[in-house]
Specification:
197 residues, alpha+beta, SH3 type barrels, 2 domains, four-stranded antiparallel β-sheet, 22% strand
């Protein structure tokens, strides 16, 4: 990734224009920050996916934005036209959002402001009842962690069915439009007991 950024910067400095990678960013319904980069070859479908998902897209057409690319996970495009955009830390999200055009920055901040206002409510979240304490207590409705690829990270998924041979059917908690999938019980992780929704 560092080499790609260096090459793009060199080409731009020499006045050579190429398609640029794109960053998709946005917040989910619970206010969690998501962002990922897509290579230049996927820039157009990634931008369409951002629009379809109510997220924002940012072309990496300057050195400051390209410097952020190595810190981001690579996104994935799906046949549905949508994309898988992993979680990122709030600070990184804010750094990226600072490079958006003003109208989009306002959109990104408005979502954040609503989330912070909701978080300021006196009701404290309680420990959800669907967190199994060990794998023997995983049942339909349990909230666990699953991964498409450990390099991309682990994400919350809900158990929808218990299958033979210690296989569970899962759905991504924050990506309900994506298809359900199977994992062996040994390939899912449990959330920490202090986790709060």
């Amino acid at each position: 990734m560092e080499n790609l950024v260096t090459t793009l910067n060199t080409l731009a400095a020499n006045g050579i224009s190429l398609p640029y990678p794109v960053i998709i960013l946005g917040r989910d319904d619970s206010g969690k920050a998501h962002a990922s980069f897509f290579p230049a070859t996927d820039a157009q479908p990634a931008s369409r996916a951002a629009s379809l998902m109510g997220m924002l897209s940012l072309r990496a057409d300057n050195e400051a934005v390209r410097a952020l690319l190595p810190r981001l996970p690579k996104g994935k495009l799906f046949d549905s036209g949508k994309a898988f955009v992993p979680f990122v830390k709030q600070d990184l999200y804010k750094e990226i959002a600072a490079h958006l055009p003003e109208a989009d920055r306002v959109k990104a901040e408005a979502v954040r402001a609503v989330t912070e206002a909701d978080a300021a409510q006196p009701d404290q979240p309680t420990k959800p009842s669907n967190l199994p304490e060990d794998w023997s207590k995983v049942v339909v409705g349990s909230l666990v962690l699953a991964s498409d690829d450990p390099i991309d990270g682990w994400y919350e998924a809900t158990v929808t069915e218990l299958l033979p041979d210690d296989v569970v059917r899962l759905r991504w908690r924050h990506y309900l439009d994506l298809p359900a999938f199977n994992r062996r019980l040994e390939d899912v992780a449990l959330l920490h007991p202090s986790f709060k929704l």
